[in-house]
Amino acid sequence: MFTDCFDDHVEDLAFDCDLSLPEARQVAHLGLNAIDPEAHTDAPAGLTNPEVSHAYFEAFFGAYPHEAPWMLDAQVRRALAAGHDNAGIRVAAAHVAEHRGDIDGWIDHLDAALRHDPSFSPARVDRGYVACLQGDLATAQRLLDGVDDTRAIVLTLALKLLEPAQIRVPRNQRCPCGSGLKSKHCCDGKIRLPGGQARFLWLKLHLWLQRYAQDVALDLVAAELADGGEYDDDDVYADVFGEGTTRSLALLECGLLDRFRSTFGPLLPDDDLALVDQWRGEGHRLWEVLGVGPDRTAELVDVVDRSVRHISDVGRTCCVAPGRFLYAAVLPSGDGWFMPDHLGLTAGAADIVAAGLRAGDRPMDIAIDAYDEVRDPPM
Fold first, then answer.
1. How far is CA 33 from CA 30, 38, 74, 232, 247, in A?
2. Whole-angstrom distance, CA of residue 23 vs CA of residue 39
3. Phi and psi at residue 114, in whole multiples of 5°?
């Protein structure tokens, strides 16, 4: 990929990655140096530029998902031996450590990157993610504040899940927390929405699935679930594997939640560990929506075994409406139940999903069958 990009396609690389031409050329030089140690030996110094380093890691791991870790490790070693030691090189070393499961080394390299350059955004975002995992929200907020990066914005918004929601309740009205007191004598409109911590943990998990260290693992899971990645309808394949529901399946029913716990367990607060343990063994089921309350709650019934769940904070999606069918996991949240992701189904697709569940079919096969039904309804 990088050989093709260099010279003839630097302009395309600049356009695709929103870089200047000199920055795009630096990315190309970095890629060529990773492949050929004799080429552009001073290229690793360019990792100090946050835009260059971010684009390089994205392109490198995208082009060589299996080879990137050891190629990057060799490149980091050469750079350090040549006297290049900067924030970008330390972040590259952190990616290598994360791939190896060396969490202490991952954090140490990120801290070293920030000592080199406290404003280096890739290091601030990754170290902010570590702080989120650890429950150190003050540090996370400090590191993420002002960083113009999609991941930083997502994490910053996620932190809001743990803050009391400002619900407009008249001071003389009964407080919605259930105390029986008037609002002015109780929470005074500052109500914590149910499921906040659980939703925050779920977002941590999804962000973990998007990290470079997880790309290969998730691809392997996807390929296995889709019979070796040879599913014959590319459009459906892309739709299914672009869905949050698929990531939920990978986490809950394909062993990745266990992998997350074994890797990051020592970093997680006790409350997060307790939730992870409650979620292990939970799976996707077919639910019919019985009713939706004005306080963003919903009552669901399992179509197969008729068990009922009352879930909180369902959001404002048209799928969660009385009479609709959902293929989803409903998880304990510590203060009730919540549904992190769902696939809204037509009645025909719901029949297919119910039949697959009763037959014990694989969860991803059920999801693909449901997508087929949604895309190509019978005449």
1. 5, 7, 10, 37, 34
2. 17
3. -70, -25
Task: For the chain, count helices (H), then strands (E).
Answer: 18, 9
> What is the DSSP-derived secondary structure letter of residue 182?
B
pLDDT digits (tens, 9 = 90+) for 78-132: 999 988 899 999 999 999 999 888 999 999 999 999 999 999 999 999 999 999 9
What is the CB neighbour count within 10 angstroms for residue 89? 23
How far is residue 368's CA from residue 353's CA, in Å, rounded to a whole number?
A: 10
- Distance CA(375)–CA(369), nearest Å, equals 10
The label of the residue with tokens 């990315």 reads 27
User: 111, 103, 98: which is closest to 72 by C-alpha?
Assistant: 98
Complete edge-to-edge strand list for the sheet that includes strand 325-328: 331-332, 337-338, 308-311, 298-302, 285-292, 325-328, 342-345
User: Do residues 250 and 221 touch, judged by C-beta distance below 8 A?
Assistant: yes
Backbone conformation region of residue 245, classed left if phi is above 0, alpha if psi is from -120 to 50, else beta? alpha
**Predicted TM-score (pTM) of this structure:** 0.81
Rounded to an integer, what distance in angstroms lies between the CA atom of residue 262 and that of residue 260?
6
288 strand-pairing partners = 301, 325
Domain-wise residue ranges, the chain: 2-117, 164-193, 199-375
Copy the structure tokens of residue 242. Answer: 């672009």
Whole-number Å distance between alpha carbons of 29 and 262? 37
Both tokens of 238, joined, read: 């892309």
Amino acid at 160: K
Q: By the 8 A CB rule, do 311 and 339 touch? A: yes
Kindly state the average pLDDT of the residues 254-275.
90
Query: Measured between alpha carbons, how far is 309 from 301 in angstroms, rounded to an integer?
Result: 6
Residue 139, CA distances (Å) to 132, 142, 306 in order: 8, 5, 45
Choices 2.40.50.140, 2.60.270.50, 1.20.1250.20, 3.30.70.890: CATH for 199-375? 2.40.50.140
Contacts of 201-206 with CB under 8 Å at 24 or more apart are 201/272, 201/275, 201/276, 202/331, 202/340, 203/154, 203/158, 203/161, 204/129, 204/132, 204/133, 204/158, 204/272, 205/251, 205/257, 205/260, 206/244, 206/247
